[in-house]
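User: two proteins, same treatment. go.

Assistant:
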Amino acid sequence: MTTSNTPPQEPLSPDELIAAVNSADDSKVAELEARLAEMSDAYLRAKAEVENIRRRADDDMSKARKFAVESFAESMLPVMDSMEAAIALPDAKVETVLEGVHATKRQLAAALERNKVIELNPPAGTKFDPHQHQAISVVPAEQEPNTVVMVLQKGYSIADRTLRPALVTVTAPK
């Protein structure tokens, strides 16, 4: 048994006891109400912030969809200018027109390359890939089965996604 060095307290009267409990409850209630108000304010601010972020994200997505091809279109403008320049000279010599066509093709290839459009032109002997190639015909040949013999039309891809498969002739299985 332990003894305390503090003198014993006199018992509280019932009225004093009720007043002490009520004052403790009132201060606790006031503290909880203040905390509730603080948390409600924080919740409303967080909710408003989330709504603002969602609205900004929606606006950004809308603008991205609307202007997604802007860079590509900008790359195509010099190609269009070259085509219009060629048309503007109806009496030009065939050699001059051909030279202009080659220059326009180089501009177009550069624009496609800048925009990550990659040419699919598999060399003969390449293993047939149905994700990048479309077999137009199957022919007997002296190379491995299911390999490309000849490309009939180049294909193109963008960001590892095939825009148009290369049209190819493949070797027949043995």
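Protein 2:
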Amino acid sequence: MSTLAAELPGIDAHTHLDGGRFDPAVLELGERLGIGLFLCSNLGAFQPHPGMDEVREMNGVLAGELRRHPERLRGYCYVNPRFGREALDDLRRNVEDRGMIGVKLWIATLADDPLTDPILEYAAAHRLIVLAHAWRKTVQRFPYESTAVHIARAAARHPEVRFVMAHLGGQPDTAADVVRPHANVAVDTSGTIIGAGEVALAVRRLGADRVVFGSDLHHIDLAANVGKVLGAGLDAEQEERVFGGNLRRWLAEVGS
């Protein structure tokens, strides 16, 4: 990792491209806020069920951004598990040829659908980070939008996979309890409803080793996301783990 990234120990576990690019202004803001590395996926036009050609294009665009910002970005390969062997082949290409460090599961399938098994088996073998969307909703839920229950079931079936449940499950109080028995599930702090109180709750319930900083850029302000972690009343050691210590350890294991 570059000297710059070493001097900026913070890592953002949950970002996206915006219109096919990572805004350089965000990288500059990260410098001021102490966020040195951004883990990023590309959801393209945010279609729930993108076709395989679109998936390949999305991951190819992301690969281009990773090459443009090699010291500041790492990539999650977006996967639509409904495409079976084609999806697995694209994942292999992006990990083994393009150096991506993880898998992004969104809303094409539920996280515990058997269709995800080959993807998760590959992730376990290569120690990839699996960033899995989860949001408990009472209205406007997508048909295949996972909740903490689906993440917990997938984690139980694949105990060697390192999951990061996005958005604290969209309902932190219950979601933290659902995934607590599964030591291979961490949570990220992203989400518009997540504030300092929810960050503190997650650390109390799960421990600082299972909570990581995430912003959901470019959809939300980076400074506000940093502020809610700083406002959570964590001690210095807990803050260090949440802001980057956990992810640095996991990234060091990718491919091992």
